């Protein structure tokens, strides 16, 4: 897109990658951006589809059919952030930016979860930033959906993942019009989202609510650092489930275990929906968490 392209509100469309100075607030402008421990450490022939704009996460998964190809990512990725996520830019190194994801709590940085992403995945969009905290929001409840450039919801465009949250501009019986960072307004099928008024939080879920949401991910392959419907790791899975239901817990398993604020439960008292944690199996690996789906482990 060029700056001359208009959003339909009379303003120019911000260009992804532009104006990313240290300290700037930006937003994720692709389906999901993947945070790396260091920039330019990817495998071009394997990880390339996850680094473009738009990303092609199905194609990325297709390049990692065997376990060893997928296991290579262990320790090289940090996390992911879905479309519309707020980030703080810390550093620019060529076409990569070191950021922190403000919604993902971590003991490593009080501002949010750190990592490196392509600058093309970020946009400085003041209009979106102003709307995000003050508008009704649409939260994607489908595992995946597709943004459309038309009000009727046809002519699909950008893919979006479960738990993507975007400001609402309008709605009909069949579609919800949303603001999109770095793009024109677009529509999502009404059946794929839940709309909350500004400042409204989801109702407190029951354990069965969280488990039912989690069971929708059955069959999804493990992806180190994943938090989207295109792949999750253990703590990314629990973080996403709880976040979707309006419960804030940290991003990593160790932090979830020690800093979540959830009441500790003895092993013999475990119930469905309790968050179970395990210690690392070996040095250099993360702890693991998952919702308990039975009364025993």
From TrEMBL:
Keywords of the record, alphabetical order, are: Hydrolase, Protease, Thiol protease
Q: Which GO terms describe its molecular function?
A: cysteine-type peptidase activity
Compositional bias annotation for Polar residues? 286-297
> Which parts of the sequence are annotated with region: Disordered?
254-297
Q: Which GO terms describe its biological process?
A: proteolysis
The NlpC/P60 domain is annotated at 204-297
**Basic and acidic residues bias locations:** 254-272
The record's listing under Pfam families reads: NLPC_P60, SH3_YKFC_2nd
Top-level taxon of origin: Bacteria
**What's the family?**
Belongs to the peptidase C40 family.
Protein name from the UniProt record: Cell wall-associated hydrolase, invasion-associated protein
Q: Which organism is it from?
A: Brachybacterium faecium (strain ATCC 43885 / DSM 4810 / JCM 11609 / LMG 19847 / NBRC 14762 / NCIMB 9860 / 6-10)
């Amino acid at each position: 897109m060029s700056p001359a392209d208009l959003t339909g509100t009379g303003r120019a469309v911000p260009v992804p990658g532009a104006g990313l100075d240290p300290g700037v607030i930006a937003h994720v402008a692709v389906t999901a951006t993947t945070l790396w421990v260091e920039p330019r450490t990817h495998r071009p022939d394997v990880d390339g589809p996850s680094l473009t704009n738009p990303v092609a996460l199905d194609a990325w998964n297709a390049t990692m059919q065997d376990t060893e190809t997928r296991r290579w990512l262990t320790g090289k990725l940090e996390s992911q952030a879905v479309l519309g996520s707020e980030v703080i830019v810390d550093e620019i190194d060529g076409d990569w930016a070191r950021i922190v994801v403000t919604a993902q709590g971590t003991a490593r940085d009080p501002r949010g979860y750190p990592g490196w992403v392509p600058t093309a995945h970020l946009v400085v969009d003041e209009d979106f930033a102003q709307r995000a905290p003050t508008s009704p929001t649409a939260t994607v409840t489908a595992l995946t959906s597709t943004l459309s450039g038309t009000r009727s919801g046809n002519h699909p465009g950008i893919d979006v993942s479960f738990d993507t949250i975007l400001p609402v501009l309008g709605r009909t019986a069949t579609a919800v019009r949303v603001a999109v960072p770095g793009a024109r307004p677009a529509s999502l099928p009404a059946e794929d989202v839940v709309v909350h008024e500004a400042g409204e939080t989801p109702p407190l879920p029951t354990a069965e609510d969280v488990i039912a949401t989690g069971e929708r991910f059955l069959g999804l392959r493990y992806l180190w650092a994943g938090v989207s419907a295109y792949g999750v790791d253990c703590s990314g899975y629990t973080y996403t489930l709880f976040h979707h239901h309006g419960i804030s817990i940290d991003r990593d398993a160790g932090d979830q275990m020690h800093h979540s604020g959830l009441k500790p439960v003895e092993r013999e008292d475990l119930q469905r929906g309790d968050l179970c944690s395990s210690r690392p199996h070996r040095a250099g690996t993360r702890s693991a968490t998952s919702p308990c789906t039975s009364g025993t482990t």
